[in-house]
Amino acid sequence: MVETRVYQKSDLNLAAKVLQQGGIIAFPTETVYGLGADATNDLAVRNVYQAKGRPSDNPLIVHISDENMLELFVEDIPLKAKQLMDQFWPGPLTIILKTKENNALSKYVTAGLSTTAFRLPDNLVTRNLIKKSGLALVGPSANTSGKPSPTSANHVLDDLNGKIEGVIDGGECQVGIESTVIDLSDDLIPTILRPGAITREQIQVVIGPVEIDAHVSNETEVPKSPGMKYKHYSPNTEVVMIEGEIEVWYQALDYYQKKHKQVGILASQLILNQLSSYPDIIQVELSQEKSIKEAMQHLFSGLRALDKVLPEESGIILVEAYEDVSENLGYMNRLKKAANQNKFIV
Q1: Residue range(s) defining the domain that contains residue 333
Q2: What secondary structure letter does DSSP report for 35?
Q3: How high is the pLDDT of residue 58?
């Protein structure tokens, strides 16, 4: 056990020294909070895996403070990568590139691959932290592996208090789900390995045709991106997706209450208003008027809030599903994994 300190934005010099000494500092980004450590330090990176309880064959994203830092690790940056960086960096886009043969990154960052995922976060506090430390930082989500990702400093403390040296309190994350990950490490058609707030259509406007990886990673292969392997985003309480009109919600509530379940609902205010007459349900607002931007921002925090108050054995969380169209893909990808594909069937 270590003492986990909460750092304010004015404490970046102190937090940077901890990183230089091989410690772990959680940092805010626009997507979720990341678990920061020196990406060139084997022991520091191994400690990140240990703190999260994360399998070591799941590669890590390297966070940088500016594009010039890429020159330390990448020989050639493809034209399409440069075009995406110009359009979306800093921002919630991670780009997988082929790395130099003898780069300084820890072998535990890449999980043995010849490629590395890089991101330039749209959070000035974290970019300044990287600059002050002089280090490229790994930054997997700062939570216990498999649990909902953290979108506040308190979420980080809920999972990792006593396991890491500190967390920088940067307030609530604006995006709320992890970055879009695109593979540009070869000459094939670029492929989105993890959907996020930046959509396929937005990327195609910049670089032309883009594929989306249609499968969760084959369990016998090493994934190129986080989020492609192992269970993700799940609270202790069972999660069920609800698709369809309000009548489906009525049927689901009747069904689970007859089974003596304590029900928590994560849905838009439009739905919550129509379910207010049901007794003994706990409601958390996902969005005001079915806004996908708000839904992404509040999904993980809503799951965590309900998980705290519902009994693990007899509780159940019903979550509003969105239509499977491109702009909703990042949200539905996280929700399907949190629910283990479980949806209420009428």
Answers
A1: 238-338
A2: E
A3: 81
Written as one letter, the residue type at 75 is E
Q: What is the pLDDT of residue 217?
A: 35
Nearest-Å Rg of the Cα atoms of the chain is 20
Q: Which residues contact 341 (CB under 8 A, 6 or more apart)?
A: none
- Say whether both 127 and 60 belong to one domain: yes
pLDDT confidence of residue 65: 98
The predicted-structure confidence for 120-167, as pLDDT tens digits, reads as follows 999 999 999 999 999 999 999 999 999 999 999 999 999 999 999 999
Is the peptide bond preceding residue 90 cis, with omega within 30 degrees of 0?
A: yes
The answer to whether the beta carbons of residues 138 and 21 sit under 8 Å apart is: no
- Cα of first residue to Cα of last residue in the chain, in angstroms, is 48
CA distance linking residue 103 with residue 263, whole number of Å: 51
DSSP 159-200: HHTTTSSEEE-----SS-SPPEEEE-SSSS--EEEE--SS-H
Q: How far is CA 259 from the centre of its chain?
A: 33
Are the C-beta atoms of 299 and 267 separated by less than 8 Å?
A: no
Number of domains in the chain: 2
Residues 284 and 162 in one domain: no
Alpha-carbon gap, residue 181 to 266, rounded angstroms = 27
Does 58 fall in a domain?
yes
What integer is the mean pLDDT of 176-199? 97
> Amino acid identity, residue 255?
Y
Distance CA 110, CA 100 (A): 12
Pairing between strand 93-98 and 115-119? antiparallel
H or E, element range at 239: strand 238-242
User: Reduced to 3 states, what is the DSSP secondary structure of residue 230?
Assistant: coil
Instruction: Report the relative pairing of strands 166-168 and 191-194 from DSSP bridges.
Output: unpaired
Would you say residue 175 lies in a domain? yes
Residue 102 lies in a domain: yes
